[in-house]
Design the sequence.
């Protein structure tokens, strides 16, 4: 049975990345360097601000008008966009959760380019899929599997 291993980050969508990050830093949080993910399905710039030993807040801004984050900002405005978790086996989780009525955005896991971070982690390979908010009480859940060696910031 696939299971959730940890909370990776809470993603907060913003139109003005720099101004938003300044506010989070004013609360005493240090940030990791920006991660640019201009290609679909992400199409964002992400600034992760670690909290404590495990969690983080990631402030995200769209890199273009086709981004799902851009569409979110148009419909709902700035705010909590998604919660990201790490699982032990994305394929198992997709099968098991799907049987329980949870719908994923993609039919198969998406593999990000090598070196793509997930919160404060940079795995050799990063597999992902997204739970449709309509099937999880309005919450967009990003589901990651880390494959291979994982570097920590």
Sequence:
């Amino acid at each position: 049975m696939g299971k959730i291993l940890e909370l990776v980050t809470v993603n907060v969508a913003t139109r003005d990345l720099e101004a938003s990050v300044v506010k989070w830093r004013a609360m005493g949080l240090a940030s990791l360097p920006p991660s640019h993910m201009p290609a679909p399905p992400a199409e964002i710039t992400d600034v992760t601000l670690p909290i404590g030993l495990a969690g983080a807040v990631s402030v995200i801004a769209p890199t273009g008008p086709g981004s799902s984050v851009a569409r979110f900002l148009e419909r709902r405005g700035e705010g909590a966009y998604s919660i990201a978790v790490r699982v032990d086996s994305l394929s198992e989780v997709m099968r098991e959760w799907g049987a329980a009525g949870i719908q994923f955005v993609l039919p198969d896991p998406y593999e990000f380019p090598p070196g793509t971070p997930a919160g404060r982690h940079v795995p050799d390979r990063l597999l992902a899929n997204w739970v449709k908010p309509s099937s999880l009480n309005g919450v967009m859940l990003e589901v990651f599997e880390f494959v291979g060696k994982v570097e920590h910031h």
In short: The first strand starts at residue 4 and ends at 13. The longest helix spans residues 17-26. The domain at 4-152 is CATH 3.10.180.10 (2,3-Dihydroxybiphenyl 1,2-Dioxygenase; domain 1). Helices lie at 17-26, 68-76, 90-99.
